[in-house]
Design a protein that fits this description.
Length: 201
């Protein structure tokens, strides 16, 4: 039996603090979490292709939520069954507060011979040798309006933490960054955020 979902993701933000990264399920009080990569590869015939934070999976906000995960493994064994159980986040997800944004939903695919097969939750899926399981989870909800976030914190999330894309920095947080020089355009930010503030009811 191949477990298709583990309890994982990011915690929601609170006023004054970003959400914690890599938080386990609150429903299990942190008792269920993804084991480390080496342990997985020793115990099971899987090759871990990727295990990293998912870009733009945090709920945006003045204080952003913790990120979700991008996880991909290859089945090096034979035929197996995969039960996708604890993955409600494909239909319900973390909501923001006080103008903060919600997170993107969880999504899981089985990739077989180049074909992407959607693996929905609470189902039993059959795996074949060579199949890849690719899962992207949502993080935690944001608190406060994203355009009120410190531009330097947004810059850090783009280039240091690698949690926010340049596109989201511009479109969601209203932070202009020159991709060539990696410098913050403070004058452009005033224009972007001024226009955003004028649209707030």
């Amino acid at each position: 039996m191949f477990p298709g979902y583990h309890a994982e993701g990011g915690a929601g933000a609170v006023a004054g603090y970003d959400g914690y990264q890599g938080a386990a399920s609150i429903g299990t009080l942190g008792e269920i979490s993804r084991p480390n990569t080496e342990d997985v590869e020793i115990r099971y015939p899987w090759k871990v292709i990727s295990r990293e934070f998912r870009i733009d999976s945090s709920g945006a906000g003045k204080w952003r939520g913790g990120p979700g995960y991008h996880w991909e493994v290859e089945n090096l064994g034979g035929e197996a069954s995969m039960h996708t159980g604890a993955g409600h986040g494909e239909t319900t997800f973390s909501h923001g507060a006080l103008g903060g944004k919600s997170t993107p939903p969880n999504i899981c695919h089985i990739v077989r011979n180049g074909e992407r097969i959607r693996a929905k939750t609470h189902r039993l899926h059959q795996l074949k040798a060579g199949d890849h399981v690719v899962k992207d989870t949502g993080g935690g909800g944001g608190v406060g309006r994203p355009e009120e976030r410190d531009p330097q914190a947004v810059w850090d999330d783009v280039y240091v933490n690698e949690l926010v894309s340049l596109q989201a920095a511009w479109e969601v947080y209203k932070v202009a960054i020159d991709p060539a020089t990696r410098k913050i355009d403070w004058e452009r930010i005033k224009t972007l955020r001024g226009a955003a503030a004028s649209q707030v009811p």
